[in-house]
């Protein structure tokens, strides 16, 4: 526990509000609030006074160590045995590590998002060329040639995307423990991360709204153009426009999700609370089997039918169904 957490813990144990503690120390309530959020550090004389008021030593307040006599699991809020480690293995995140990690996420978020968008856009040429060659007699391109060119472009775009995932994924491997293991933030880090997260909230909300709206509206070109389509050409255009809108929407969702996820990992919020990390470890095997099966089904269906404009629907359905699978497995374990 850092000083900020100890002040909060001891104040609540004594049943005092921030204002009541501030009165005893001769400071403002805002000062106490900043101490507890790790936005600022109390002066030494205030630390000495707090040790007298709380009945603890100054060493206890100043040293980032667990309180003697308390159960580690009670303090940390999770069962360390379930994670296959003890409290000594908890990694301390310094200010420098947090800053480097967040800066790395900002740099790679757009690249990873671009890779995902390339995968979505990859069948556009295949759909367009095969559609044109099939509908128009006397076209220079035969269906076979159109499929060959379209598949080549598709595979090239997917290959570029995979290269992006591998290159930038390897850069993130050193931080994998943030998703799986409990962490402890060094003094002042929590306040810094919370401040940056607060500053990013507006951009995150905007990108979420735009991304979701674009994905919803992506079906509009197909519906509008299909109404007046006589030879199927407008439907093909509509499908490609749909994929373009989806790719833009997904780009916004993925890029903002990566950055915002970094804040949640450091603060152990959302999907990265300590209890959730235990649950995630239990679901590791399920995750691998499930997503490998989904990927195999998607590729099999797509290559057999060559209806890439339809098979993408596998992913949103798989994402929703995954929640149900995890929920059911959790209920089964509890019983």
Provide structural commentary.
With 335 residues, this protein is mostly helical. It has three domains: 3-65, 434 Repressor (Amino-terminal Domain) (Orthogonal Bundle); 94-268, no CATH class; 283-335. Helix content is 74%, strand content 2%. It contains 17 helices and two strands. It has helices at residues 3-13, 18-25, 29-36, 44-54, 58-62, 72-76, 95-121, 124-135, 143-172, 177-180, 189-217, 220-227, 233-267, 274-282, 284-305, 308-311, 314-334, and strands at 91-93, 183-185. A two-stranded parallel ribbon has the order 1-2. The radius of gyration is 27 Å and the shape is elongated. The two termini are 34 Å apart. The relative contact order is 0.10. The model is unreliable at 65-80 and 82-88 (pLDDT under 50).
């Amino acid at each position: 526990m850092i000083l900020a957490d100890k002040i909060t813990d001891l104040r609540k144990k004594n049943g005092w509000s921030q204002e009541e503690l501030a009165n005893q120390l001769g400071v403002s309530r805002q000062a106490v609030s900043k101490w507890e959020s790790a936005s600022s550090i109390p002066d030494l004389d205030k630390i000495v006074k707090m040790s007298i008021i709380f009945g603890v030593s100054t060493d206890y307040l100043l040293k980032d160590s667990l309180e003697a006599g308390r159960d580690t699991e009670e303090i940390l809020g999770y069962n360390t045995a379930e994670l296959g480690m003890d409290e000594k293995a908890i990694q301390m995140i310094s200010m420098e590590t947090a800053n480097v990690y967040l800066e790395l996420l900002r740099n790679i978020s757009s690249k990873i998002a671009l890779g995902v968008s390339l995968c979505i856009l990859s069948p556009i040429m295949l759909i367009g060329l095969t559609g044109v060659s099939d509908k128009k007699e006397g076209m220079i391109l035969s269906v076979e040639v159109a499929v060959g060119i379209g598949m080549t472009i598709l595979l090239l775009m997917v290959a570029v995307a995979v290269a992006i995932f591998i290159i930038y994924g390897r850069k993130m491997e050193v931080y994998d423990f943030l998703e799986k293991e409990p962490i402890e933030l060094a003094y002042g880090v929590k306040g810094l991360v919370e401040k940056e997260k607060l500053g990013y909230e507006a951009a995150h909300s905007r990108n979420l709204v735009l991304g979701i709206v674009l994905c919803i509206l992506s079906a509009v070109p197909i519906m509008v153009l299909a109404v007046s389509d006589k030879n199927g050409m407008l439907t093909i255009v509509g499908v490609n426009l749909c994929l373009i809108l989806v790719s833009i929407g997904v780009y916004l969702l993925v890029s903002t999700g990566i950055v915002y996820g970094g804040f949640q990992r450091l603060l152990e919020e959302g999907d990265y609370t300590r209890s959730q990390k235990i649950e995630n470890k239990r679901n590791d095997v399920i995750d691998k089997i499930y997503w490998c099966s989904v990927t195999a089904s998607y590729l099999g269906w797509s290559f057999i039918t060559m209806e890439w404009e339809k098979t993408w629907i596998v992913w949103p359905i798989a994402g929703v169904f995954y929640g149900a699978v995890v929920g059911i497995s959790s209920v089964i374990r509890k019983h």
